[in-house]
Design brief:
alpha/beta; Rossmann fold; five-stranded parallel beta sheet
Length: 174
Amino acid sequence: MANRYIVDANVFVQGKNFHYDFSFCRGFWDWIEIGHEAGVIFSIRKVRDELLRGKKGDAAREWALAMPDSFFLDDVADLAVMKEYANVIQWAASNQHYKPQAKNDFADANRADAFLLACAKVHGYCIVTQEHHNPEKKVSIPIPTAAIALGNIPTRTIFETLRKHAVPTFMFKR
């Protein structure tokens, strides 16, 4: 399993909406930043773009704006990633299992999924996503399922990542 991670947008969006709301779980966001400073946790520019499409004042959007540029790795500007991105898109386009709309969504250049897979494969990252492997799914292409098909690119959930790299921090407040 890779020792460096790139994080999918759904971790940040679901995090701020549910488990890691900024009002009571700032420690999660600090953990991401500390992991980045340690050279372990990153994301990609396409994820940043997805987060910045949020409404002005959205906590994840504001957080993404405040993160250092080094957190969001180049994807489109990285020739090796773009070469692998073409392979990822070709795999999806030629796959007869998925419905046409799933393939179109996956190939949408505004979405980060295919870029995450390409970047992870080229640079040896593990993708952290809230998606799960589901080989029966036809209406969308889950990152973990694509990762297996593309050569066992490592994936894990944020909870698995936290179990490996976090310590308990919750404290009760009156």
